Amino acid sequence: MAVSALVLYVIFGALGFGWRSWRQYRATGSTGFRGISGRPGSLEWLAGAGFIAAIVVGLAAVALQLGGVLTPIDALTAAPVQTAGFVLAIAGIGATLYAQNEMGESWRIGVDASETTSLVRTGVFGLARNPIFTAMLVFAAGIAVIIPNAVALVAFVLLLVTIELQVRVVEEPYLARVHGADYRDYCAATGRFVPGIGRSGPPIAQHLDT
Questions:
Q1: CA distance 163 to 157
Q2: pLDDT for 67-93, tens place per residue?
Q3: pTM for this entry
C-alpha cells in the first residue's frame, strides 16, 4: 500500500502544483507561487513553513513504511478501510484540481501583500471559502488511511494546523484588507472549509508581518 500512496503523492504534486502552475503561467505569465509570508518565526512564516514540513513528513511516512521501519496500525489495514482511503485520496486530487480551476487567474500559492486579486465567490467558492484546502485535507486523510502509521497521522495533523494558520493569520487578514465589506459579507454568508460552518466576520484586517 505504501507504493500506492507514493504514486498518489506524485500524481497530486504533479497535477496540483506542477500542471496547475504551468497553466497559470500560460494564462498570466506568472506561476502563481508567492512564497512564505512574514518574518522567520512569525505565525505567518510558521504557516508557510509548516505546510512544507507537512509534505516532507508525509513523504517520510511513506518512505519509512516502504523501508519496513514503520508498520501500519492493524485496525486500519482491513480491505474496506483501505478502499475508503483510496476513494478519499482520489476524490481529494479531483476536488483540488476542480477548485483550482474555478479560482481561475486568482489562484496563488502564498500571498503577496502588495497584490490585489479578484474575490472568487462562485461555484464551489459559493459553498465554502477555502475549498482547495478542504480538498487537500481530504487527500491527506486518504493517504493517512492508506499508510496508517504514526508518522502519517502526525503529517495529517501538521497539515491541518498549518492550513488553519495560513487561512486565519495570512489569507483572511489580506482579503479583509483588500476587499473590505465584500469579503465581510462573503464570510457572513459562506462557511470557512465546509458549507454552513465558520460563517462569521473575518479578523481585523492588518498588514502582513514582512
A1: 10
A2: 999 889 888 889 999 999 999 999 999
A3: 0.90
